[in-house]
Design a protein that fits this description.
Layout: H1 2-21, H2 28-39, H3 43-50, H4 56-65, H5 70-90, H6 95-111
Length: about 120
């Protein structure tokens, strides 16, 4: 089971790295998943993510207070909005409505978290 958690953590870090480069893909949710997996498989890698100078504070805020900073909320909702606009221009209906639905559901959830 430990190897499965390790593999899951590695995949989550890889997806988080992709998300750091692409504005429409999240980073921190994948890093949260990686921390969860590494806590059960490799505590040293968990510590390295939690203590990372850029991503660590967001991870600690979520772990300790289930909080998302206002800046992160604006960035996340903004990126989802850009994604919906790009979908509208490139794919049109009905795919645009899928993007809008994700924006409304996920954006509302993000907006209502503690700061």
């Amino acid at each position: 089971m430990r190897r499965l958690y390790l593999a899951g953590g590695i995949v989550a870090v890889a997806l988080g790295a992709i998300g750091a480069a692409l504005p429409i893909m999240p980073t921190v949710p994948f890093l949260l998943l990686a921390v969860y997996c590494f806590a059960r498989s490799n505590p040293e890698w968990e510590r390295r993510i939690v203590e990372h100078p850029h991503w660590g504070p967001q991870i600690r805020d979520w772990r300790e207070r289930r909080a998302i900073s206002r800046r992160a909320k604006i960035a996340a909702i903004g990126a989802m909005t850009v994604g919906a606009v790009v979908t509208w221009y490139t794919l049109g209906a009905p795919w645009y409505w899928v993007s809008v639905a994700v924006l409304v559901v996920a954006g509302t959830w993000i907006a209502t978290r503690n700061e």
